[in-house]
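agent> fetching stored inputs for the beta-D-fucopyranose docking request
agent> found them:
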Amino acid sequence: MTNGFPSGFTWGAATASYQVEGAVSADGRGPSIWDTFAHTPGKIADGTNGDVADDHYHRFEDDIRLLADLGLNAYRFSIAWPRIMPGGVLNQAGLDFYRRLAEACLANGVTPYATLYHWDLPQPLEDAGGWLVRDTALRFRDYAVAVHDGLSDVVKHWMTLNEPWCSAFLGYGNGEHAPGRTVGADALKAAHHLLLGHGLALDAIRTEGSTYGIALNPAPIHAASDSPADRDAARRIDGLRNRLFLEPLLAGRYPADVLEDTGTTEWFAAQEADLPLIGAPLDFMGVNYYCPTTVAAPDGPISTPGPSTQPGSENVVAVDTGLPKTQMGWPIQASGLRDILVTINKLAPELPLYVTENGSAYPDVVTADGEVEDDERLDYLRQHVAVCKDLVGEGFPLKGYFAWSLLDNFEWAWGYSRRFGIVYVDYATQQRIVKKSARWLQDLLADV
Ligand code: FCB
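agent> prediction call returned; pasting C-alpha cells
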C-alpha cells in the first residue's frame, strides 16, 4: 500500500524568521516592528518576545538535518528584511546567513522555498509610515532585488508575501499584530501597498528557471443561517478575507462591494494603474489553511473578537458552530481546505497550488519517557493530508504540502503559549523532540 501521492509531490515544513531565529542583534540585524511590538508591555500574552526563540539562527544545520531525516524534501523559511537592509543599505552578513541556510538545505536534499516577507518590517520603515505609505512598496522591491541577486543561484522558489491580510488587518486594523495600529478602514490602504510591493518585487526579480508566488490565508466563510442579514455578513467577510486579495492577484480587479462597504471606492479608483502589476501571472499560489469561519449579523452589541474587528465589518460576529476546536479555538474542518482550494482553482484553473501552511496548536506534554504523544495534531494532519491526496488523485493542480510548523515557536501575540510544531522545543534547553505527528508523517513519506 503506497501513500498515494506522486513521487514529485513537494513535502515540507515551514517556519518564519522572527518566530524561530532569535539572534536579533547578530551580524548587523536591525530592529523590526515585531521587536518593538513584542517589547511593548501587554502586547504578548505570556510577556515574551523573539529575542532567542528557537535559536534557529545558530542551530539551523541541525534543524534542517532533522527535517530531512523526517523524509521531507522542502523547507519553507522566511528571510528577515531587517537582516538584509536594516537601514536601507545592504548588510552582506545578513545575506550570507541565508546563503548558508539554503546551502544546508541543498546539502541535505531539501529544496528551499523562501518567503521574502513574513511580517518583520524594519522599524525605520514603519517610522516612515509603514505599509500605510506607498514608498514602503518601493523599498520592498529594492530589498527583494538585493535578496534575489544574492541568492538566486541557491534558491529557486520564491514567495513575496506571507498573508498580507494579517499584515494589513491585524497590523493596522485591530492592532493585534505589529505595528499595533488601529487606523480603521485605512488598513485597506496597507493591503493595497502590500499587493503593490508584491507586484513590484515580482516584476523586478522574475527570472527564467525559478518559480514565483505569494502565500495567502484565504478561508471558506459561511453564513450562520440563510437569513439575508447573515448572508450579507458572510459576503462582507468573504470580501475582506478572500476576494480583496484573490481578485486583484488573479483577475486584475478589486471587488467593488468591498470598496463600497469600506468607503474606499474613491481611493482605490486612484490606484487603478497599479492593477496590471499586481495581477501579473504567478507561477504558483501558496495557501495557508487552518479553519473555516462562520459569521452572523449581530442582534445586540458586538463583543466577539475576530471578524467583527475588521474594518468594514463592524456589524459582523463570529459564530461557534460546535465543531471540535484546537487550542487556538479554531474549528477543525478538513473539507474547508478542499473548498478554498477549489474556489481559487475556479478563478485560475491552470495555476499550481501549494498548501504552504497547515497545522494545529495543542498543549503538548513530554512524557516520562521523553516522548510527545500529540495524537490530536496527528489526527488533524491526517485529515488534511487526506484531502490533499483526494485532490491530487482527481488531477487537481496541487503540487505540495508544508506542515506548520517544523518547530514549536514564537506564536506572535500568543508568545510561546501555543505550540504548532511537529517537533517539540524545550525552550529552556533548546532540545528538540520529534513528536508522534512527525513520526506519522515520516512513515507516510517512507511508504512509496
Ligand atoms: C499563520 C502565520 C504563521 C503562524 C500560523 C499559526 O497565520 O502565517 O506565522 O503564526 O498562522
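agent> quick read of the result: The longest helix spans residues 228-251.
agent> awaiting further instructions
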